[in-house]
């Protein structure tokens, strides 16, 4: 079986740049970075699917392996549903193909190994040791696909005292300290409104896979990548963690405020909220002038950021009273062009009516095969050297099973029919 993939092709076939010199090779300008790279996706829920979706946006062919009958857990996470499809699943699974395989069946294990041999990357998010029991652990796959970049996404890592625990975003955000620093100043810990620990882990995995592909380009060998929710979120604690590690300063909750910058928080207006930040003394002076409070500029309590932090309660009380006197639109008008960081706290309706959100192309529309036109949040990054092609909608469960067996693995009609008859695989027909 011929191994596929951009990173196993002879240098210069399609253009690009050599890693050694950076000099361009001739080639078409519209080739996506991961065109011809195949990703075998054994993940479900959020962190893994978010990583593989981002890879798919860059041109990779993503083959999503799902359980026959039920598929990815998030297919049932709702309401809301559109027809039979959950909006949760639709949000993170564009640009993928779905093959439904029973990987508890030896024939299913064989298919996954064959797919691994035909792919460049395998991504999985099983509890450590679970795939090993099935014969699909890294060492097992490495034997049949030594070129593979094998990325494992877990809750707490491959080894250690917590490694066998299930990885859920809310729990990992608690253990990592994120919930300790999130919430009202004098209130209970709060879970962020989206699963930021899952999403951060997905982005770490996405970057690590790209690095793994470059390493394979250099060495011709694959490798194992260990990503986990706990490590990702602890790494993202940044200055809060450094405050403790360097100065032994314990963290606390600040609501919308900041522990080291004042003012930098949300202020209630007559009809909503406005977030305003002043990161230096000059910006603070501008804020005071906009609010018609010039006397605060030379007030001995507020002349430096350090003093403003020390006298936070008094300053925030004065500013809050002034902001409460006006409508949000008034303050937006006054702050426009001032150079001060500011913005309203938007509802989802307001977010997707925001001119900059629309200008940045963050609403991606697709025609789904069973529910019609859908819209999901689009990619956050744009590139100058290749176009964003028309996105493919998230797949139905097993929608591409027969196509992958025939075209990727070379199975004939009788072999495919036998697997379907025995329930090793499942095909969903689009009507």
From TrEMBL:
Signal peptide: none annotated. Belongs to the CoA-transferase III family. Pfam families: CoA_transf_3. GO terms for molecular function: succinate-hydroxymethylglutarate CoA-transferase activity. It comes from Ornithorhynchus anatinus. Keywords: Transferase. InterPro entries: CoA-transferase_III_domain (IPR050483), CoA-Trfase_fam_III (IPR003673), CoA-Trfase_III_dom_1_sf (IPR023606). PANTHER family: SUCCINATE--HYDROXYMETHYLGLUTARATE COA-TRANSFERASE. This is Succinyl-CoA:glutarate-CoA transferase. The gene is SUGCT. SUPFAM superfamilies: CoA-transferase family III (CaiB/BaiF) (SSF89796). GO terms for cellular component: mitochondrion.
């Amino acid at each position: 079986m011929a191994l596929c993939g951009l990173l196993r092709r002879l240098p210069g076939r399609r253009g690009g740049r050599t890693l050694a010199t950076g000099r361009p090779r001739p080639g078409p300008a519209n080739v996506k970075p991961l065109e011809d790279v195949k990703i075998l996706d054994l993940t479900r829920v959020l962190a893994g699917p978010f990583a593989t979706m981002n890879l798919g946006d860059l041109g990779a062919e993503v083959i999503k392996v799902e359980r026959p009958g039920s598929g990815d857990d998030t297919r049932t996470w709702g309401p809301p549903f559109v027809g039979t499809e959950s909006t949760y699943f639709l949000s993170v699974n564009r640009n993928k193909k779905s093959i439904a395989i029973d990987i508890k069946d030896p024939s299913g294990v064989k298919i996954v190994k064959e797919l691994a041999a035909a792919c460049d990357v395998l991504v999985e998010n099983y509890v450590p040791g679970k795939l090993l029991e099935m014969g699909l652990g890294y060492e097992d796959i490495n034997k049949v696909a030594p070129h593979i970049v094998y990325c494992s996404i877990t809750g707490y890592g491959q080894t250690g005292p917590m490694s066998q625990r299930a990885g859920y975003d809310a729990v990992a955000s608690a253990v990592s300290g994120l919930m300790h620093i999130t919430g009202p100043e004098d209130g209970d810990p709060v879970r962020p409104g989206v699963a930021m620990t899952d999403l951060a882990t997905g982005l770490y995995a996405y970057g690590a896979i790209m690095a793994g592909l470059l390493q394979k380009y250099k060495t011709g060998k694959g490798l194992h990548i260990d990503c986990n929710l706990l490590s990702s979120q602890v790494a993202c604690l940044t200055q809060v963690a450094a405050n403790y590690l360097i100065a032994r300063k314990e963290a606390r909750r600040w609501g919308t405020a900041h522990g080291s910058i004042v003012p930098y928080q949300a202020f209630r207006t007559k009809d909503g909220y406005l977030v305003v930040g002043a990161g230096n003394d000059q910006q603070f002076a501008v804020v005071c002038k906009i609010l018609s409070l010039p006397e605060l500029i030379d007030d001995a309590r507020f002349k430096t950021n350090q003093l403003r932090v020390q006298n936070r309660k008094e300053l925030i009380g004065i500013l809050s009273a002034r902001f409460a006197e006006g409508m949000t639109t008034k303050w937006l008008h006054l702050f426009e062009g001032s150079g001060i960081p500011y913005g309203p706290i938007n509802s989802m309706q307001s977010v997707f009516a925001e001119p900059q959100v629309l200008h940045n192309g963050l609403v991606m529309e697709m025609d789904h095969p069973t529910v019609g036109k859908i819209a999901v949040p689009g990619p956050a990054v744009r590139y100058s050297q290749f176009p964003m092609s028309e996105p493919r909608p998230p797949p139905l469960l097993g929608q591409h099973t027969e196509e992958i067996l025939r075209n990727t693995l070379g199975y004939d009609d009788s072999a495919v029919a036998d697997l379907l008859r025995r329930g090793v695989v499942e095909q969903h027909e689009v009507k």
